[in-house]
Design a protein that fits this description.
Radius of gyration: 27 Å
Helix content: 25-40%
Number of helices: 5
Shape: globular
Distance between the termini: 81 Å
Largest sheet: 15 strands, mixed
Structural class: alpha+beta
Order of helices and strands: HHEEEEEEEEEEEEEHEHEEHEE
Number of strands: 18
Strand content: 35-45%
């Protein structure tokens, strides 16, 4: 009898502590009344432990979701005259068109790279077969391993994806229909179905790079993007300058002009040798 009474007191203290924690987490509108305790005494210790574990799980899941949200980053291009370029943790480059936002984690998981897109963007995804790259839009899920493609999901026009190189799998969320899209092909969402055709406008990819803007981007990433668009001339810098950040806009500039603008912005000097421009202090 004494031992049973002690167990009741221990359980009572545990509930009081749990109620206080739930109130702090904002999961309760007010302190629960005594009927909970009546359930405990009638149901026995096993029911009490089960219910306690359930409520603790709610607290844990709620906190985990909030922590995950805090780790998500958002890049948004609110300008109408430039493409905002950003490099993700894995080296993938995303060119965001006007009125477009991209949400992505600060660090990708070990088995998947997941982002969320609203609007139109050109993706140049770093290849990694062990970690598929997944893009969530309002209507579709896009899965790639390493490729370049243009996604249009602005909402004002039908969803459309055109592949520049590689292959992409597009899945329609509502029906589960999926389709593989290869280089030179375009998939369009028409009459609630994905339809495949030849890409009607191959020049759409180049338009993303005509006037590009970098915002608080590391110099190493900026040079990597410039080099990918201009294979004839390579821009390099010293290791200690790789992580210097810069906000800059280029408008159909040559690699030489871009190197000059970077030098002016960061107070650097450049040297040219064998089609390589090196930026240094």
């Amino acid at each position: 009898m004494i031992e049973t009474e002690r167990n009741k007191k221990k359980t009572d203290r545990a509930w009081n502590a749990l109620y206080q924690r739930l109130e702090e987490e904002g999961l309760l509108s007010g302190r629960p009344a005594s009927p909970f305790r009546s359930i405990l005494w009638k149901g026995g210790m096993a029911a009490a432990v089960a219910l306690l574990c359930l409520l603790v799980s709610v607290v844990y899941l709620n906190r985990t979701e909030r922590e995950a949200d805090r780790n998500l980053l958002t890049r948004q291009n609110s300008e109408t005259t430039t493409t905002l370029v950003t490099t993700l943790e894995d080296g993938s480059v995303v060119y965001l068109a006007e009125n477009t936002s991209l949400q992505y984690p600060q660090h990708f998981s070990s088995d998947r790279r997941e982002v969320s897109l609203q609007g139109n963007a050109l993706f140049d995804v770093a290849g990694n077969r062990a970690r598929p790259f997944v893009i969530e839009t309002e209507d579709t899920r896009i899965e790639v391993l390493g490729t370049a493609f243009n996604v249009k999901s602005s909402g004002s026009s039908p969803f459309e994806l055109s592949v520049q190189r590689g292959e992409v799998k597009v899945t329609l969320k509502k029906s589960g229909q999926d389709i593989h899209v290869k280089a030179g092909e375009t998939v369009t969402l028409l009459s609630r179905k994905l339809q495949l055709s030849a890409t009607p406008d191959p020049g759409q990819f180049a338009r993303y790079t005509e006037r590009i803007r970098f915002k608080d981007e590391m110099l190493g990433n900026i040079l990597r993007v410039i080099n990918s668009q201009n294979p004839g001339i390579r821009l390099e810098t010293t290791p200690e300058l790789q992580n210097r950040t810069l906000t800059v806009t280029f408008s159909n500039d040559t690699p030489e002009d871009m190197a000059e603008l970077i030098c002016l912005a960061l107070n650097l000097k450049k040297t040219e040798k064998n089609n390589t421009i090196t930026l240094s202090e």
